[in-house]
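The records we work with from here on pair a chain with its fold. Here is one such record, which you should read through line by line:
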Amino acid sequence: MNRREFLGGIGLTAGGLLILQSGCVVRAETISPGGAILAAGLPPKEHEFASPPFEFGPWVYWFWLDVNVTREGITADLEAMKAAGVAGVLIMDVDQGTPASFNGAQFGDPKWYQLFQFACEEAGRLGIEVNMTNDAGWCGSGGPWITPELSMQVVVWSSTSIAGGQPASLKLPQPEARMDFYQDIAVLAFRTPPAEENAKSYRILDLRGLTDTGAKAEHNIPTHLKWEAIPADQLVATYEISDVTERMEKNGIFHSALPAGNWTILRFGHTTTGVKNHPAPTGGRGLETDKLSRKATLFQFESLIGRIIEKIGPLAGKTLVATHIDSWETGVQNWTPTMRSDFMRLRGYDLLPYLPVLTGQVVDSLEISERFLWDFRKTIGDLLVENYAVAMRETADKHGLRLSIEGYSGEPASDLRYGGEANEPMSECWSWKRFNARETVTEMVSAGHVYGRNIIGQETFTANGDEKWLGHPAVVKDIGDWTFCEG
């Protein structure tokens, strides 16, 4: 969900209500002059379509803008939604440039929890169900409780050239440390390829989805039946790569005892990507969690949803029925502390000798290096599904909650697997520009069918400034009809 404007004619109420999502049931009612529903005499199934039960009504996004919410506004919003046939709400507390909360509350403070509990009580009174996004803002998972150690991680490195043949000690430069956080992975040594000395060594420049933490994951990685043959003087053989991690002290001093010749020393480590959840109000803003770590996922759940469950008691699983992961807008990560053992478990070989490929160095051959990159990307995707989507769903289920995920494009994993692990896969279809993001509908409907999910949600009629005066419900009816036909 990107920064956007909304359909004309839909406004903000005292409690912070902003409706922008259409639900999953069309009300096909015939209204008499007096306002009565004309459904008498219809066969049972036709009667259900003409006058569907309330629980099958549409849901809406219910934005709390920087906690500018009151008890009176909450009641007014929910009663208005009930009267309009809205069956459920997805709450997101977001920062959209509104003034700081007039009631002095901040996201996650005692007053915020009191307001949330009251909202669940009122929703329960009216028979409206509640879904709460798993953090502040509308993307990812994160918050001020996430330390750099538990945040999204990226591989960093430094390279040092030394001459062998005699003992020596030198300090290896520490790779980049974002937010003063850095941990070593390994130190590797190999003979510098002869062409490197003449600055002619081959480099893999296309490392999409692995090194640019601000980019989206790349799903369309090219493959070849025949890879370019790289001259031997421009590559490194795995049998020539030595793990010399134990020769480096904690302060970075490296004790060299390498044979004669020119050597390259690569010091690998990992640091935080520094990406934060957005657009989150101050009290809820913090680092995004390590999506490849089950430990980080469970900690995130307990830090917000777990505390909500504790506060609202029996309303959890009854009125609060779900938690939500919205669209992937957090960039790319390529490491987690258990990556080496996870890679061995999932791919069957050690990644350590191939780490130089992440710097662009060709190891053994271009084909083998690219095959490693494929395995590395696949492992990132597998861990994201296993330790994020599945872990979040299993934890939610233990508390009687469902999990919804907008699982389309952007995340470094299979959309089908990622979205399909949710109880409710969610797609997106923008009203303006017309049919924007329509491919997500087919993706998430497919995920629902493949994984047996009988509820498929959709963020519907989202728009941006391009709509201007054309943002009338009649203009987007055909989009709604189309998405229903798509499933």
Q: What stands out?
A: Confidence is low (pLDDT under 50) at residues 1-40. The CA atoms of residues 30 and 38 lie 5 Å apart. The first helix runs from residue 44 to 50.
